[in-house]
Amino acid sequence: MAPEALMQVLHPLQSIFANVDQPNLLVGIADDSAIYKLNENQAIVSTTDFFTPVVDNPYDYGAIAAANSMSDVYAMGGEVLFALNVGAFPGNMKPAIISEILRGGAEKVLEAGAIIAGGHTVTDDEPKYGLAVTGLVHPERFFTKGGAQVGDLLVLTKPLGTGTISTALKRNLADLAHVAPMVASMKQLNRGAAQALQAVGRIKSVTDVTGFGLLGHALEMVKDQAYKFVLQFNQIPLLAGATDYANEYIFPGGTANNKLYGESFVIFDSTLSDAEEMLLWDTQTSGGLLIALPPDLLDDFAQTYIDNECNQPFWVIGEVTHGEGIEVLP
Q1: Using CA atoms, how far apart are residues 11 and 27, in angstroms rounded to an integer?
Q2: Which of 35, 137, 282, 320 is 20 to 30 A from 251 (CA-CA)?
């Protein structure tokens, strides 16, 4: 759903559990996953996500959907224990295609060191697939969206552009040379990056970049906080082809919704083009982690990131300063 529509839907429901005493519910609906404390050393991380196909290959679609679903556990600093399939498929879809979607999801979960333990499917005109994911995290070592400190560096672990490239693919306008790197990026787990963050310690503020785009999720990190994010556009990584399709204004509908909802909180340098601005609002699928990283931990994080065999670099794209909202420099 569009951010503004989602807020309107949830607002009347905020008071339902207001008087319910849940001291072990450490994190609720305001973050990427729910966290529930089991004991002094363990807390459950729980999340769910699903979406319609973003690529043509059934196996890749399943793997991307699974990576995207598990990403919210990694954004909280957790490890995945098991997952349940959530699927909706047309009645006339060939069983072999559905099997490939589920195989892609299952093998991605296996890569995460976890297991598919069941699930639920329904018949629907448009295919949808994802996971309900259960993980574990230490109750005193999880990440949330808030909690950045002035002086922190802003780090991104995957390039942007999946929204515009996948939309070009749906419209048969994408160069196949641009599709393969996009698919590889979306299939990459955020597990190694999360493990690196846990290893260096002192990390508080993390989220993953998905449907609300880089700026939409960054706004969630600065909301009601006494600091602002300053981003350097020329330091933000973009997938090959993203700029080409952006210049042709090829974006999913959610990108315009993201901009409409959040543009009053963002100041852009006047030299940035409309296409460059839209790339920062672009709806992402299975994007990377956005991290507020204390600068003295950068070298330790870099080494641990390499040790965890993460398959692509990370990028320092800005910093946390005094103020409010977000500023984007050229």
Answers
A1: 18
A2: 320
